[in-house]
Amino acid sequence: MNHLKDVPLAKAYLLLNHGPSTIVTCEHDGVANVMAAAWVMPLDFDPPKLLLVLDRNTWSRHLVEGSGTFVIQLPSRQQAELTLAVGSCNGGETDKFERYGIATSRARHVEAPVVDGCVAYLECRVVEEPHNQQSYDLFIAEVVAAYADERAFSNGRWHFPNDDLRTIHYQAGGAFFATGEAFQVARD
C-alpha cells in the first residue's frame, strides 16, 4: 500500500470510467465482508458519486444497509483468481477474508477493511434512495476518499507499466480480460 496516492475527488470518476471489475468491502457491527461487483459506474463529479448494483440476497447488502458505507476496490490482473473467488460464495456462510487469506488494511474515512494490493480505492457513503434500493437494487453513494497506485494511475490517467498492474474486466464463467493499451486521439 506504499504506492498509494490521493486522487482529487473531482477526478475520482476517472478511476471507474474504463469499466473495470471491482471488489466491494463493507462492515457493520464488527462483521465484515468482501464481494466482487461488475456493475459499478461513476455518476457525478462534484460531489463525486457512483452507482453500485447490490442484490438484495447478498450478505454485503445487509452490511451496507446497516453501516451506510462501503469501499470499491479495483483489483489488478494478478488478483483475478481472488476476484472470482470472493464473487462465488456467500459471506453470510463463510468468512471470506479467512477462507482466502486476504490481507487487509483499514479504510481511511469509512469503517471498513480494504483489500491490500488493489490498484485503486474509492471510499463511499450511501446516499439514501429507498425506492431505487428496494426496486432496482441500485445504491447511489458519495465518494468521500479516492486513492490509487501511482505506478498505474497518475495525472488523471491510467498507464500500466506491466501486465500485473492492469485492471480486469469480467465476462462470465471465470473469463476475464485485462485492460488494454491506452492511446489518445487529438480533438479538432
TrEMBL record:
SUPFAM superfamilies per UniProt: FMN-binding split barrel
Pfam families, A to Z: Flavin_Reduct (PF01613)
Cofactor: FMN
Domain Flavin reductase like per the UniProt entry, residue ranges: 14-160
Keywords: Flavoprotein
Family as reported in the entry's similarity comment: Belongs to the flavoredoxin family.
Protein known as: Flavin reductase family protein
Lineage, highest ranks first: Bacteria, Pseudomonadati, Pseudomonadota, Gammaproteobacteria, Pseudomonadales
